[in-house]
Design a protein that fits this description.
By secondary structure, the protein is mostly beta strands. The strands form two sheets. An eight-stranded mixed sheet has the order 6-7-8-9-4-3-10-11. A three-stranded antiparallel sheet has the order 1-2-5, with no helix packed on it.
Amino acid sequence: MSASQESRGTCLCGAVSIRVTLERHDVSICHCRMCQTWSGGPMFAVESDAPMTLEGEENVGVYASSDWAERGFCRQCGTHLFYRLTQGQHYAFPVGLLDAGEPWAIAQQIFIDEKPSFYDFANDTPCLTGDEVFAQFAGSAGS
């Protein structure tokens, strides 16, 4: 995607809706154990550093899943809404939550060292281990 575009999404019951501006239609696949537990499999996410708009915020629950991140969900229907870093404005949104029909493309797989052996993706993408992901974030924290 060459220009930024607003994407919208809503939870299953309609109590929460999200609007976010995306610069790219890149999808990252996270194979970490926490995402597997949260999503029932790998998490397919689009990422953004742009502020998001939430409607129905009173229906949003937030779970601090680590010292550096938290996960948002609809308190009414349980839909996963976002993963966000506690520092800064970095969000990851489940790609299935956002508008259908976008030209999504898998750009990378992360925590590949935690991926179960019972599935593989045919896409030829960069694959990072958990240590490589943490090293990237540590390197960008000093910027």
